[in-house]
Write a structure and sequence with these properties.
The structure is a single chain. The chain has a single domain, classed as Orthogonal Bundle (N-utilizing Substance Protein B Homolog, Chain A), CATH 1.10.940. Helix content is 67%, strand content 0%. The chain is built from eight helices and no strands. The two termini are 28 Å apart. The mean pLDDT is 88.
């Protein structure tokens, strides 16, 4: 028997909340557990952006919010490899950093989610925050990372130096 297909709208809402939570964590220094609990208790079902998308998938939200800081060194190193040689991750806008980290986490740790879905979702999400070139930047960075971390989905051999967590 096949597992039920995840609710795309609930995951989209979870991704938006996860990016907001990661941004809050970076600004305040609060830990993932505290911020995740606050979002579930006080924000889900109450904020206009969330209401428009519907109820977030709480388990998916929690996985991303807790997974990013747990693997932050590996995630940041992987993103840095995808940036132009003269760019450092610290120069990237903090919301954009949260989007890239969440997308990178999914590419690295959520093999159950297809690469195309991950890239499309985070590019679309970036449009909610930016109207300039940032969505194209997200697309390029996550696509480059996807080719390194999930080469098989592109019919490519994995790079020799790739490590997955």
């Amino acid at each position: 028997m096949n597992a039920p297909k995840p609710d795309a709208a609930a995951r989209r809402a979870a991704r938006l909340a996860a990016v907001q939570a990661l941004y809050q964590m970076e600004l305040t220094g609060e830990d993932a557990g505290t911020v995740a609990a606050e979002f579930v208790a006080y924000r889900f079902g109450r904020e206009p952006e969330q209401l428009a998308l519907g109820e977030p998938d709480q388990a998916f939200f929690a996985d991303v919010v807790r997974g990013v800081p747990h693997h932050q060194a590996e995630i940041d190193a992987a993103i840095t490899e995808c940036l132009a040689s003269d760019w450092r991750l610290s120069r990237v806008d903090s919301i954009l950093r949260a989007i890239l980290r969440a997308g990178a986490y999914e590419l690295i740790a959520r093999a159950d989610v297809p690469v195309k879905v991950i890239i499309d979702e985070y590019v679309e999400l970036s449009h909610a925050f930016f109207s300039g070139e940032e969505p194209a930047f997200v697309n390029a960075a996550l696509d480059k990372l996807a080719h390194r971390k999930r080469a098989a989905e592109f019919g490519e051999p994995p790079p020799d130096d790739e490590v997955r967590f």
